[in-house]
Amino acid sequence: MNKYNFSFSFIEQKVRTKTFGILTTINKDGTPHTTGILYGVSPPSIKFSLYCFTSKRYKKVQNIKLNPNISFIIPFPHHILRFAPSSTVTFNGKANLVSLNNTEIRTIFSKKRILKLVINQSQTEDQESFTFIRIKPNPKVLCYGIGINVLKLRRGHKEGGYSVILPEERQ
Known about the structure:
By secondary structure, this protein is of the alpha+beta class. The protein has one domain (8-165): Electron Transport, Fmn-binding Protein, Chain A (Pnp Oxidase, Chain A, Roll), CATH 2.30.110.10. It is 22% helix and 36% strand. The chain has five helices and eight strands. The longest helix has 10 residues, at 113-122. It is globular and about 50 Å long.
C-alpha cells in the first residue's frame, strides 16, 4: 500500500477522465523519444491496458518495433493554482502494435468524443497507414499528487509521491 492509502481503482478512475498522455519510447541509439498522444483505457472487466492511435510512419512506432519498453505519463495540471506542479500518473511497461481493425479498441475510442473524432478522421485516409499501440503497464504505478491537497504538497516535493499496484486480476 502507499502512505496515502489510495487504491489502483481510485487512480484508474482519474486516468479515465483524461485522454492525453506523454509517451516515451527508446530510439535505436538508446536515447529517449518523447511525444504527446491521445489514449483510451480498457474496460474494467478485462486486463488493464492503455491504447493509443497513431500513424505507422511515426518514430514512436518504429521505436516500439525495435524495443517495446516505454513510459507513459498522464499529467493532471492545476488550472486554477497555476503555481502548483501538475499531478501525474506514470505507467512503465511494454507496448505492442495492434491492428486498426480491432473492434474492442475501436469501441473504447468510440466512447470519448475526441478519440472518436480522431478515428473518424482516419477513415478518409489510407487505413493501412494507421495502428493502435497497446500499453501493458508494469504492476507498480507511480503517482504524484493525485488526490492530495495542494497545500500539503507545498510542504515539500516528497509529500506527493506514492505508488499503487495493479490488482493481480487486472495485470
